[in-house]
Amino acid sequence: HVTGWKLAFIAAPAALMHEYRKVHQFNVFSVNTPMQYGIAHYLQNPKHYLGLPAFYQAKRDYFRAGLASTPFKLLPCAGSYFQCVDYTALPRKEASLSEAEFCRWLTTELGVAAIPNSAFYANQTESGVIRFCFAKQESTLKTALHRLQALAS
Known about the structure:
Layout: H1 14-27, H2 33-42, H3 47-50, H4 52-67, E1 73-74, E2 82-86, H5 99-110, E3 115-116, E4 129-133, H6 138-149
Antiparallel strand pairs: 1-2, 2-4, 3-4
């Protein structure tokens, strides 16, 4: 899996392709040729990608179950490998930090990385929501959950 790479292919009716081409160059202008060949080879075997929904569903369910014993408020999560949580109910002084400051604190003090939700908005609106990526090895998720569960005490 190549999460984070802006690489895909699309097949659609002509009207949709016309609209897609308007933004295409701004999304995939820097894809390297070896990666394109690698993905083309990968797509030749449907077994590689037909199991991905169940693969990520299991990771999501595992991560959400682990977070359920924390003070984080889990937001709905579907069709993504990111889990958004509200941290403002944490029984700690850090719950009053901005999203960016809270993510920095999580990373430096607990060793768990998260992204502030406000980073995805032009006006940097603060909502007390951060996102975790669960497209990780099980051992990484287990370690992260253990560290996050310690926040409950």
